[in-house]
Specification:
Layout (H helix, E strand, L loop, with lengths): L9 H32 L11 H30 L6 H34 L2 H29 L1
Helix pairs in contact: 1-2, 1-3, 2-3, 3-4
Length: 154
């Protein structure tokens, strides 16, 4: 019996953790794909040529960051495929967990930057920076602080 009251072997726990992680990755993947697709269509819009150097730099950084987020989200599946049937499930789950945590951090940067860019273009530079910083703070609270508060209460 484990500390959480479950009766499962280490292999059963690894399988359960892998399945839970895959569900989380599916949720993340959809959002990142939509955001990346949106970013990739922007240069083909007529008003894209009107962006200033700062906005183009932010845009290009967002494209690279979004592609990195996509790569990190897909990486656990690639690792699993490469190591399939090698009796390494627990190691795969641990690595996938770490990759997913990094992917969440990168995704937070993409969401922050996208908000910054949209507000910069539509309203102004100062508003873009304020909104971008606000989004980053909200994501840090919801994705980092709240889970840590729950962990400490446990």
């Amino acid at each position: 019996m484990e500390a959480d009251g479950r009766k499962e072997t280490p292999n059963e726990r690894a399988d359960r953790n892998w399945n839970e992680l895959l569900q989380e990755l599916r949720v993340m993947q959809t959002g990142v794909q939509i955001l990346t697709g949106f970013l990739l269509t922007l240069p083909f819009q007529p008003t894209f040529a009107e962006l200033d150097d700062y906005q183009r730099t932010v845009y290009l950084a967002l494209v690279v960051t979004s592609v990195i987020a996509t790569a990190l989200i897909v990486a656990p599946v690639s690792v699993h495929r490469s190591l399939f049937r090698q009796q390494m499930k627990r190691h795969i789950v641990t690595l996938a967990d770490r990759l997913t945590r990094v992917a969440l951090a990168v995704l937070a940067l993409v969401m922050t930057g996208a908000s910054l860019l949209v507000f910069d273009v539509v309203v102004g530079r100062t508003e873009g920076i304020v909104v971008g910083a606000s989004v980053l703070v909200v994501l840090a609270i919801v994705w980092v602080v709240l889970p840590e508060v729950l962990r400490r209460r446990q």
